Each structure stands twice: as C-alpha cells, then as structure tokens.
Amino acid sequence: MKFNLFRVFVVLLFLAVPVLGVWTFVDAERWKMWFPEGVTTYAGEIDFLFDIILWMVAITFVGTEFLLVWAIWRFSKKEDGKVTYTHGNHTLEVVWSAVPALLLIFIAFSQMGAWSTIKMNFPDEGPYTVDAPMMEVIAGQFDWWVRYPDEEGNFRGEDVIDVPFDIHVPVNTKVVFRLKSRDVLHSFFVPKFRLKQDAVPGMSIPVWFEATETGSYDLICAELCGWGHYKMAGRVHVLEEQEYEDWLSQKRSELYAND
Ligand SMILES: [Cu+2]
How far is the CA of 222 from the centre of ligand 1 (A)? Predict the structure, then answer.
C-alpha cells in the first residue's frame, strides 16, 4: 500500500476534534472559563448532576469520535476496491437504543432530589415564605424590576420600595420571592447560585435560595426575549444581616422623605 498524504491529513483533521474538544474542558479552569464557585446551599447538588451528565457525554463523545477516526483510517485504504454494504444488525440496534434509554432513566432518578429541593421544598417557617415573600421580581422588556413590600407586607400601595436591576438580600437566610413577567418569557438566572427559573406572563412563580457568601453576583436573562435581551443584566447583592436591615431602612426613609 502506498503512503497517502491526503489520507493521513483527513485522519489527523478528524482526530483534532476530540483532542481539542477534551482540551477545552481540561484547560477551562486556567482561562477562568469554568463554572464560578457556587454560593448557595443547593449549588453542590446541581454541580453533582452537571458532573454526572458531563462524564456521560464526554465518554460517549470521545468513544464515537475515536470510532469514526478508526473507521476513516481502516476503510480508506482501498483505492479502487469494491465497496461493501451491510444492512441492519438487530443486536446492535437494540443495544444502541437500550443503553441511552437506561442512561436517561438513570438521569431522571438522579435529579429527583435536586428538583424537589429547589422547586418544591419551600421554607414553611422563618421570615420569608411563599405567602409572605421577601420581594417580587418583575421581569419585562428589558429590565428587572424588584419590589419590596411596605411595612405591613403589602406589595401594592404607596409605600412599596421599587428598585430596578439590583436585588439586596441577607446572607445565610432562606430568601423566598415571587417571579413575574410584564410581557414575554424571561428567565431569572444567577450562575453563582445555580438558580434558573423562567418568568411566565400571567404567573406568579415562587423561587427560593439561601446564599452562603456575601458579595455581588450577576443576574442575567436566560431566555431570548427581544432586541434588548442583552440589557437585562442585574446584580444580586448578598449582604450581612445588619447591612441588609440598614439598606432596607435607608430605602424606607428615602421614600418617606420624598412624600
Ligand atoms: Cu429577558
């Protein structure tokens, strides 16, 4: 068999896909392109699920890519030989249907704990509950409107506090808020919290989290909602308990001063 430079080139080209693909993951941390560290009580559960799924996808990806590269190398030898066709392999088809089905069932069971923690188990006591939330977040084209209730806990009336784009919450506290939309679908996403929830017009969706570290974190809209989607960049400020109280009373006094 004569050495065929083109054949080697094609094999190397296809080999570059899995090699570079894996490399981007291995090297992501160094370029600060990996997940930022989670800062909520349930961040670990989400990261665990992410890792399980990432490994499944990685193994499948590397396996199929190498199979492809091997097939290109193995079957590109013949220059004028006859092509052979195969048609149907029942065992193989059963295997490649059953394995993904089992993996999906495995994922479905592994995520049940995280789903119930985040979407179903709201705090039923403490300062904030589904019926007495800390605030309302109203998404709209193209802003986040944050409303804190008046001193009686009402969200309507003159003494509510409206803050665009900036959410203030205390650290180590179970925060419950209600998420609404004024117009179209938006999605409330705070990557550091591992929290993402759609805002749906006509619905008032309860959301909870407990931040474990003070700091200011990015809030972004994760649902393409129109031309100004990119402008929906807010911040969540996690403050010490006392700082939060001070911020809230400062806001209230500003409100009364304007009267
Ligand atoms: Cu949006």
Answer: 7
Task: Answer whether residue 117 shows pLDDT above 80.
Answer: yes
Per-residue pLDDT, 224 = 96
Nearest to 238 by CA among 188, 196, 193, 194: 193
Centroid of ligand 1 to alpha carbon of 141 (angstroms)? 6
The answer to whether residue 139 sits within a structural domain is yes
Distance 229 CA to ligand 1 centre (A): 5
Question: From the CA of 103, how far away is ligand 1's center (Å)?
Answer: 33
DSSP-assigned beta bridge partners for residue 209: 175
Quick one: DSSP state of residue 68? H
Do both 159 and 226 map to the same domain? Answer: yes
Give 204 Cα–ligand 1 centroid separation in angstroms. Answer: 16
| pLDDT on residue 79 | 65
Question: Structure tokens of 251?
Answer: 């806001």
pTM: 0.85
Residue 241 in tokens = 């308990």
Range of the domain at 232: 135-258
Domain count of the fold of the chain: 2
